[in-house]
Design goal:
It is a single chain. By secondary structure, the protein is an alpha/beta fold. The chain folds into two domains: about 20-45 and about 305-430, Aspartate Aminotransferase, domain 1 (Alpha-Beta Complex), CATH 3.90.1150.10; about 55-300, Type I PLP-dependent aspartate aminotransferase-like (Major domain) (Aspartate Aminotransferase, domain 2), CATH 3.40.640. The protein has 13 helices and 17 strands. It has helices spanning about 15-20, 25, 45-65, 70-75, 85-100, 115-125, 140-150, 170-180, 200-215, 270-280, 290-325, 350-360, 405-425, and strands spanning about 35, 110, 130-135, 150-155, 160, 160-165, 185-190, 220, 245-250, 265, 330-335, 340-345, 365, 370, 380, 385-390, 395-400. Helix 6 (about 115-125) packs parallel to helix 7 (about 140-150), helix 6 crosses helix 10 and helix 11 packs across helix 13 (about 405-425). The radius of gyration is 22 Å and the shape is globular. The structure holds pyridoxal-5'-phosphate. Pyridoxal-5'-phosphate (PLP) binds near residues 252 and 263.
C-alpha cells in the first residue's frame, strides 16, 4: 500500500512554500448545497452548445463522406500557438460589433483561459524584485502569480467605484522610493471587479490610461465580466489605446459561453510575440476543436442568447442583495452592476477564514474569505499616512458569488449563512 502521507523526498522549488494554494480552488473540494464560493457560471447556453456539437459533427461527417479527410484531421489536431486564424477573425468582428474595438485578427491571441494569458504576461514582464500595481483587494489569480514570480505587489485603495486613481502618481513615486524600482504594470478589472464587484467610471479609466501612457507602463485590463453587465457598458480602457501600445486587453469566453478553457486578448504586438513564445512551453496551443466550437458560437449565436443570460444573472444579483440586507448582521456590501460577486464587510471584527471552515461549510454554505484577496508579501498605499505599508488583510470580509445557484437557493443559503453569522461570529472575534 502506498501511504498518501509519505514524506516528500524531493527538493521542491522555493515558491511551493511561499505561495498558498488558491483559496477558490481549495473550496471547490467541498460539496455544499449553498455554494457562493468560486465564480462558477450557473446560466449557460446549453441548448445552443448541443446544437453546435451536432452541427460540427455533421459537418465533419459530410467532409469525410466527400473524401475531405485532411480537412477533418486538421480540426482534430495541433494548431498555431496564437490561435486558429478563422476564430481570431471571428473574434475581431465580435469585438468590433460589441465594443467598437477595431483590431485585426493579428492583434488577437487565443489562450487556454484568461488565467493562462495573465500568467504568460507576468512571466514575460517580471523579473524578481520588479514592482507591479493593483487595487486592494485584488484578484488572487493575478496577485499570487505575480508574487510567485518574485514581483513586489503594491496596491491602491478602493472605494465603491473601484481603484482610487487619485493616488496613482503618489503611489508610483513612493513605490520607487521605498522598493527601489518604478512599477512596470497596473492590473485592473474595470467591469464588475473580482472580488469587490465594483465598476470603474470612465474618468478613472481614462486616468489609468493617461498615467500608463505617460510613464510607459503596461495596463493589464482584465475584462472577464465584460459581457455580464446589467446596465449600459462603459467603454473599455483599451478603446483609448488605438495604436495598441499600452493596454493588454483580456477577455474570456468562460463567463459568456462556458468554461471550455478558451480566452482571447488584444496585446501590444511586441509583447504578444513574447507571450506566444512563453505559452509554446506551457501547453503549445489551445485545443483546436474547442476553438472551432466557439467560432460557431461567436459568429451565429451569442448576440441572440446573451441578453437572456444576463437578465438571469441580474435577477440572481438582485435576490442576493435583498437577502444580504434582510438576513446578515450589520455590515456593508457592494452594489454590483454586473459580474458574479458581492463583497461584504462585517462591522464587527471576526475571522471569516476560520469561520468558513468551522461554521459555514458544516452548515452547508461556502463563500471565499476576503483575506485570500490581499497580498501575502506586498505593500498597500495608505491614504491616511500617504506611505506604503505592509498589507494587512481585512479578515472580516467575504466574497459571495451569486452566479451558480438559482434565486430560491440564493435566498435560502443567505438566510442560513446570516443566521449562523448572527449566532456564532462573536466566537470568532479577533
Ligand atoms: C477577474 C478574472 N480573471 C481571470 C479569470 C480566469 O478565467 P478563465 O481562465 O476561465 O478565463 C477569472 C475567473 O474567475 C476572473 O474572475
Amino acid at each position: 500500500m502506498v501511504k498518501s502521507s509519505a514524506p516528500l523526498v524531493f527538493d521542491l522549488a522555493s515558491w511551493t512554500k511561499r505561495i498558498p494554494e488558491s483559496a477558490i480552488r481549495k473550496l471547490l473540494r467541498f460539496k455544499v448545497k449553498y455554494y457562493f464560493a468560486g465564480g462558477k457560471p450557473g446560466v449557460l447556453p446549453l441548448d445552443v452548445f448541443s446544437k453546435i456539437l451536432v452541427e460540427k459533427g455533421l459537418d465533419d461527417l459530410m467532409n469525410l463522406i466527400d473524401g475531405e479527410e485532411r480537412k477533418v484531421i486538421d480540426e482534430f489536431n495541433y494548431g498555431p500557438s496564437s490561435g486558429v486564424d478563422s476564430f481570431r477573425e471571428t473574434l475581431s468582428g465580435f469585438l468590433r460589433r460589441s465594443d467598437n474595438l477595431k483590431f485585426t485578427k493579428e492583434n488577437i491571441l487565443v489562450t487556454t483561459g484568461s488565467q493562462q494569458v495573465i500568467y504568460g504576461l507576468l512571466d514575460t514582464m517580471i523579473d524578481p524584485g520588479d514592482v507591479v500595481l493593483s487595487s486592494n483587494p485584488t484578484y488572487l489569480g493575478f496577485m499570487n502569480v505575480a508574487e510567485k514570480l518574485g514581483a513586489k505587489v503594491v496596491t491602491l485603495p478602493t472605494d465603491e467605484n473601484g481603484m482610487v486613481t487619485d493616488y496613482l502618481d503618489e503611489c508610483y513615486r513612493k513605490s520607487e522610493k521605498k522598493l527601489g524600482k518604478k512599477p512596470e504594470l497596473i492590473y485592473v478589472i474595470p467591469d464588475s471587479d473580482n472580488p469587490t464587484g465594483t465598476t470603474l467610471p470612465w474618468k478613472r479609466r481614462k486616468e489609468i490610461y493617461d498615467f500608463a501612457a505617460e510613464n510607459k507602463l503596461l495596463v493589464i485590463e482584465d475584462a472577464a465580466y465584460r459581457e455580464i453587465q446589467f446596465k449600459e457598458k462603459i467603454p473599455p480602457i483599451k478603446s483609448l489605446d488605438e495604436q495598441n501600445l499600452f493596454v493588454a486587453y483580456i477577455r474570456t469566453s468562460s463567463k459568456e459561453a462556458a468554461p471550455l478553457r478558451v480566452a482571447y486578448s488584444v496585446l501590444p504586438l511586441n509583447l504578444m510575440r513574447e507571450v506566444v513564445k512563453a505559452r509554446g512551453y506551457y501547453d503549445l496551443c489551445t485545443s483546436t476543436l474547442t476553438q472551432k466550437l466557439l467560432e460557431i458560437y461567436y459568429s451565429k449565436y451569442i448576440d441572440k442568447v446573451l441578453p437572456g443570460i444576463v437578465k438571469k444573472y441580474e435577477e440572481r444579483c438582485r435576490v442576493m442583495a435583498k437577502s444580504i440586507d434582510e438576513f446578515f448582521p450589520n455590515g456593508e456590501r457592494s452594489s454590483p452592476r454586473g459580474g458574479f460577486f458581492f463583497w461584504w464587510r462585517s462591522t464587527r471584527k471576526f475571522d471569516a477564514t476560520l469561520f468558513v471552515e468551522k461554521e459555514a461549510i458544516p452548515s452547508n454554505v461556502a463563500y471565499v474569505p476576503g483575506e485570500a484577496f490581499f497580498t501575502v508579501y506586498g505593500h498597500f498605499f495608505n491614504p491616511d499616512t500617504r506611505e506604503l505599508e505592509r498589507t494587512a488583510p481585512r479578515k472580516n470580509t467575504m466574497r459571495l458569488s451569486f452566479s451558480y445557484l438559482p434565486p430560491q437557493d440564493i435566498e435560502r443559503g443567505i438566510e442560513v449563512l446570516g443566521k449562523v453569522l448572527k449566532e456564532k461570529m462573536a466566537e470568532y472575534h479577533i
